[in-house]
Specification:
The structure is a single chain. By secondary structure, this protein is mainly alpha-helical.
Length: 453
């Protein structure tokens, strides 16, 4: 039975108002944040590329380590957003504040852990990734500063997820926009030098990143304290802290580990494609990046589902959750159709912008005409995963991701490649997304009905 929404605290804003208007508004704000974050990484790459090939290659070797840590921390942020959004929906404001403080404390513990682990392992890990003796010192220069400033990197990620749990997706995006603007100013100053500031090269890029993220740290804590009134004296009794951490980690650890499956699967698919030659691998690389950009709107919508469903699940507003589930199907179908038409018409033009070599353009055009059929279904899977995490079913979410990537995508890509070469591989990937999307969403519908009854 739904809770009396009039008696809920102000943070329970997602249990009121129109479902469509609320979710679309949240998605637009979330989309801005994703775009700002993508631009942040592009700015770093642009300025480091001006230093030379060695520095750009050195930065490339940092990405696997950075992405692994980001993936794990994103899982913790998702866990915090899920439990806090449900507590908001239940109207337990004291519990919301305690969960907020305990989530930030957990983030600090992870900072200490990753700083220690990073300094102990970064040199052998970078060597394992294949960095040459010429490149290795540059990579270590970057990572040494990046790890030292990790507090400024991790806490804003957790804090912004907590802010989103309140239904406010705009404030974190504006923080990321300010973060981007500061990085654009600081990158050239610290990398190339300006006035009294010496040229620091790739170390300057890392320092600019850390200082820019410091702004995000201050801003997110300001919003949590002054606008959300969620920062308070924490209950540091071990039993209370462990209760909160257990709830957060129950979702956060599976979600974080699941985030690592995507690059693993990408590596396996790339290995299969390598059998068709360098041109096909180049086409796969360019096509994957274009596909990731095209999928950002549906990813933003899926990310908005977690706090929305979490609050409404806590409030017992199951009819609003069902409307959100149906809306996710419509959004995924419409955006998927737009991508199919767009890339179908413009794939030759887009491919020509990425390469002048015919042996690359042809497979890239093929990629851009086939893979967009999977974008809508992939978006539907993401929405299903966020929905499962929102109602405290992280193992279901992780299980479906495992089935989709390693149980379906890799085997069907391999089978398709054996039968139909590169086009067959692409069709195998599309088929895997279709099967996984239909099955996962049927499972979500079943879960909602069973748990709500």
């Amino acid at each position: 039975m739904a809770a009396d929404t009039a008696s809920l605290p102000p943070h329970a804003r997602l249990v009121r108002g129109g479902v469509v208007k609320t979710l679309l508004s949240m998605s637009v704000s979330m989309l801005l944040g994703f775009l700002f974050n993508a631009a942040f990484n592009l700015v770093d790459t642009y300025f480091v590329a001006r230093l030379g090939t060695r520095e750009l290659a050195a930065m490339g070797y940092t990405f696997p380590l950075v992405m692994v840590i980001h993936g794990l921390i994103m899982g913790i942020g998702m866990g915090a957003a899920s439990v806090i959004s449900r507590a908001i929906g239940q109207g337990d404001q004291h519990r919301v504040r305690q969960l907020t403080m305990h989530a930030l404390l957990l983030g600090i513990v992870w900072v200490v852990f990753f700083i220690g682990l990073g300094y102990l392992t970064m040199r052998p890990v970078v060597r394992l990734l294949g960095a040459s003796p010429e490149i290795l010192p540059l990579t270590i220069d970057y990572l040494s500063i990046w790890f030292a400033g990790m507090l400024f990197l991790i806490i804003p990620m957790v804090g912004n997820n907590i802010i989103r749990a309140t239904g406010d997706t705009l404030s974190p995006s504006l923080v990321m926009g300010a973060d981007l603007a500061l990085n654009i100013v600081l990158d050239p100053i610290f990398i190339f030098g300006w006035g009294p500031v010496p040229a620091l090269g790739i170390r300057g890029a890392a320092l600019a990143t850390v200082l820019s993220r410091l702004l995000a740290l201050v801003a997110s804590l300001y919003i949590l304290h002054y606008r959300k009134s969620l920062l308070t004296r924490p209950d540091l009794h071990p039993r209370a802290v462990w209760r909160s951490w257990k709830q957060i980690l129950y979702i956060g650890l599976p979600a974080g580990v699941t985030n690592l499956l995507t690059p693993l699967t990408a590596g396996l698919v790339t290995r299969i494609v390598s059998g068709f030659g360098t041109a096909s691998v180049a086409a796969l690389s360019a096509g994957t990046r274009l596909e990731q950009i095209a999928a950002i709107p549906i990813i933003a919508f899926g990310a908005s589902l977690l706090p929305f469903i979490g609050q409404n699940w806590g409030a017992g507003s199951y009819d609003r959750i069902e409307k959100a589930r149906r809306l996710s199907i419509s959004v995924a179908a419409v955006w998927g159709a737009i991508c199919v038409v767009f890339f179908g018409l413009l794939s030759p033009v887009i491919a020509a912008r990425f390469s002048r070599e015919t042996e690359v353009i042809e497979p890239l055009v093929l990629y851009l005409r086939i893979i967009p059929f999977a974008i809508g279904f992939r978006g539907l899977i993401m929405c299903a995963n966020q929905s499962m995490n929102a109602i405290n079913r992280p193992l279901d979410s992780s299980g479906w991701t495992l089935i989709r990537l390693l149980g379906l995508q890799v085997p069907l890509a391999f089978l398709g490649a054996r039968i139909g070469a590169f086009p067959g591989l692409l069709l195998g990937i599309v088929l895997s997304e279709v099967i996984a999307a239909l099955a996962a969403n049927r499972w979500v519908k079943h879960l909602f009905r069973r748990l709500a009854s």
